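Aim 2 progress. For 4Fe-4S dicluster domain-containing protein, the working sequence is reproduced below.
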Amino acid sequence: MTKRYVLVHDENKCIGCQACNVACRSENNVPESVTRIQVRIEGPYGNFPHLHFKYNRVSCEQCENAPCVKVCPTGAAYVNADGIVSINEKKCVGCLYCVAACPYKVRFINPETRVPDKCDFCKDTRLARGEEPACVSVCPTQALVFGDANDMNSEVRKVLDTKNHYQQKVNLGTEPRVYRIPSRKGGIKA
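Predicted structure tokens for this construct:
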């Protein structure tokens, strides 16, 4: 793998506006009843007037050791050359093993195609054109940074090298490629 695409979600800069969800839905023709990405708003925490919220991105974690790929009997769930966990609709037989195997519970059945679906960093649209994923391009607070972590000069590499970050459920050995900068109380800070 020459590229290692990763996404960083800065929980301090996120305001829970859902612009990422709307852009993803538009770019990827996601039906209204399902979502590839959302920001869950948790809280409020604290005591008035010092209340704060936590903004938690929920999307495919693009695991390097993806359980969904391992259980797929037909190879419909696969990892492409850039390391993006993908789905080949033509090979899918609808067994739903991939949906059941995802420890992050982000795969869903697209009600129009009847095939499992999830975030793929807009690989067939925006990435194919050399652009960032739709969610990254519309974020009004620059809470999302995307790029090739193997490129030592990339913005995403600089963020990972200089900011404290974490990944969800690392104890499962999935090696997720969505990183989070942990929230500090009080909202947006530079």
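The first strand starts at residue 5 and ends at 10. This observation will guide construct design in the next reporting period.
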